[in-house]
Amino acid sequence: MSEARVRPDRFEAFHDMIVAAVREFPDRHPGLVGHEVLIAPPDSLLYVSRWRSEQDLVDFAGEDWRSRPVVLPGEDEYLLAPLEVRHFTIAALEP
Predict the structure, then answer these.
(1) Rounded mean pLDDT of 64-88?
(2) SS (H, E, C) the chain
(3) What are the sequence ranges of the domains in the chain?
(4) Topology of 2-85 in CATH?
(5) Confidence (pLDDT) at 17
(6) Is 16 or 91 the better-scoring residue by pLDDT?
(7) Taking the model in full, what pTM does it have?
(8) Which residues of 54-82 are buried (b: 16+ CB within 10 A; e: fewer)?
(9) Fewer CB atoms inside 10 A, N or C side of the chain?
(10) How many CB atoms lie within 10 A of CB 84?
(11) Mean pLDDT, the chain, as a whole number?
């Protein structure tokens, strides 16, 4: 998951750019099993992705995937602060 803190006056444009950029990710990255763009206007946007394996995530994001978010060209001009990245794994629920 990466969180973008977006300049409120650029929020809609940033949202449109992100949605257009990630739309084809599943076709280009076969290990991506699902993804979503979640918004909390006026300034927060999350990109959440689910990967088949850690290696698939490394193939997409690089060896520093744990600490370095994937940043799209030109993204910085929309942001109030650098992207924050966090990773989660599924925890089994016991019956």
Answers:
(1) 93
(2) CEEEEECHHHHHHHHHHHHHHHCCHHHHCCCEEEEEEEEECCCEEEEEEEECCHHHHHHHHCCCCCCCCCCCCCHHHHECCCCEECCCCCCCCCC
(3) 2-85
(4) Alpha-Beta Plaits (3.30.70)
(5) 96
(6) 16
(7) 0.88
(8) eeebeebbeeebeeebeeeeebeebbeee
(9) C
(10) 12
(11) 94
Tokens standing for residue 86: 């966090």
pLDDT at residue 92 in the model: 80
* Cα 37 to Cα 47: distance, rounded to the nearest angstrom: 5
Q: What is the pLDDT of residue 91?
A: 85
| Cα–Cα distance for residue pair 17/1, rounded to 1 Å | 17
Using the Cα atoms of residue 13, residue 14, residue 17 and residue 19 in order, give the sign of their dihedral: negative
How close are the terminal C-alpha atoms of the chain, in Å?
27
- Token pair belonging to 5: 């803190």
Q: Dig out the tokens for 20 from the structure.
A: 């257009």
**Which amino acid belongs to residue 84?**
E
Strand ordering across the sheet containing 2-5:
32-40, 44-51, 2-5, 84-85
